[in-house]
Amino acid sequence: MSLPKASQLPIGTAITEPGSTRRNLTAGWRTLRPVIHDDRCIRCQLCWLYCPEGTIVEVKGVFKVGNRTYDVKYEINYDYCKGCGICANECPTKAIEMVPETP
């Protein structure tokens, strides 16, 4: 038995092929969203590493947080984040908080 190719599926199912989340805004069903608290972030990259959608991006620059200066910070691309909470769960300093999505 062979499976059909994505192009052979009825319209509406072909958008779910692997990699399609980068072509389609997929955050519409999110009920919780992660918020990064820069003052607690230790730049360990675990959120970036474990994000299944690759929505956490590293931003390089000079960032002053309190009395410390960092050369990198992390931001979330909310167009694609599905609110799964894996980033918040993996953060060792609890710098990521899941908050209710506002309409």
UniProtKB/TrEMBL annotation:
Required cofactor names: [4Fe-4S] cluster
UniProt keyword terms in alphabetical order: 4Fe-4S, Electron transport, Iron, Iron-sulfur, Metal-binding, Oxidoreductase, Pyruvate, Repeat, Transport
Pfam families: Fer4_21
InterPro entries with a match to the protein in the record: 4Fe4S_Fe-S-bd, 4Fe4S_Fe_S_CS, PorD_KorD
Sample GO molecular function, one term: metal ion binding
Residue ranges constituting the 4Fe-4S ferredoxin-type domain according to the UniProt record: 32-61, 72-101
Protein name per UniProt: Pyruvate ferredoxin oxidoreductase, delta subunit
Organism in which the protein naturally occurs: Pyrobaculum calidifontis (strain DSM 21063 / JCM 11548 / VA1)
